[in-house]
Amino acid sequence: MxxxxxxxxxxxxxxxxxxxxxxSLNEYKQVGTEEFENVKELYSEILSIGIxxxxxxxxxxDYISVxxxxxxxxxxxxxxxxxxxNALVNKKVAVVYDEFSENILLxxxxxxxxxxxxxxxxxxxxxxxxxxxxxxYFTDVSDVELDLKLWKNVRYNRQNIRYQFIVDVCRYLYExxxxxxxxxxxxxKNAQDEQRLSSLYEKFIYAFFKRETKYNVSHPQIQWSxxxxxxDALPIMQTDLVLQKDKKTLIVDAKFYSENMVARFEGGTAKxxxxxxxxxFTYINNWKKEPDETVAGMLxxxxxTALNQPNHIYxxxxxxxxxxxxxxxxxxxxxxxxxxxxANQFFA
Length: 348
Prior knowledge:
By secondary structure, the protein is of the alpha+beta class.
């Protein structure tokens, strides 16, 4: 069976660092020099460093709606609630008002994670003590039951974007521990790992080229080149990465699968995944080219353990399509070198 999730912990750290732009932060530099036995240790170490950083910077606050019965009128009076609670008997009314508070979802997720981790026997006693020691800083934050659904309601903006790295790592670690404690099948665990790593892989590839190269780096949506302006129900063409330089454009689609090529039967000839080729070919042909602009596509797979890996260059109807695989198990300096080489195949 093919696999691609045996990525060295050190490389996972670098991928996270690029994806969340933490390479330049002094607090995390020591993480890159440590050895970890598993990904849970890595995530735990990141949280033990990152949560105190958030605390020192001040927990984020926002306006939240508060409902209470009071003998002091503030905000709006809720007549219906006042009557239902029979509050007037005690010379009180039900009021609703906005309060600038730390008791927001982001802080609730972190507190719930700290409570969960401080009680988990899946991490070291030393780390449990560290997490327990951080709980007093969240005294004014409500207790919520830790559940994966919480993350679906998270929204980031310029005021709270500093939370994203830590809140995402909270989820990664919680998921990891959750699967360890459940009877979920190995197939389900592998699928969850692949989904998580696929998202990280896309973010890493984009952030790497943004940081390490002088290309114009973006990930725009491509509009369909229709003849009559009718686009209802057409799927969105969201690129993972677009590199541009000197009237040359390379559209890159990052692919992280447990299987990169397919064969119709065991022992048969391995072929490209047709859907991926159709996708990148469609991107190229709908890209609105400037005069004298050259456009090419690249499928950038994460290498699996299979013998046959994508490593091809096609010329189809005047379009160049690169299909390559990146070995995430090699030394990270080699990963960087490979990525730059792949791009230079087109831009050199």
